[in-house]
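Same chain as my last thread, 89 residues:
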Amino acid sequence: MVNKGLHDPSRTGNIANSIRLDPETEQRINSLASQTGRTKAFYMRQMVESQLGEVEEYYLAADALERVRQGKERVYCSAEVREDLELND
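reply #2:
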């Protein structure tokens, strides 16, 4: 039998991660957790989950823009799109 230990994601559905925070941010999260009785992990998870979509959108768009600027991504004009979708009536 293999002992997977406490960090086995199949046991909780969550995967442990770690990040480095500046002292001020660490203190703010510690204070929030202390005052509310919730864990630091709860608040950090909330922050990641609530902002992940916006971060993805920003960085993926920036990456696509860079590919366009480098000529690696095709750009279509509205006339081409209308023609491809057979919207020219």
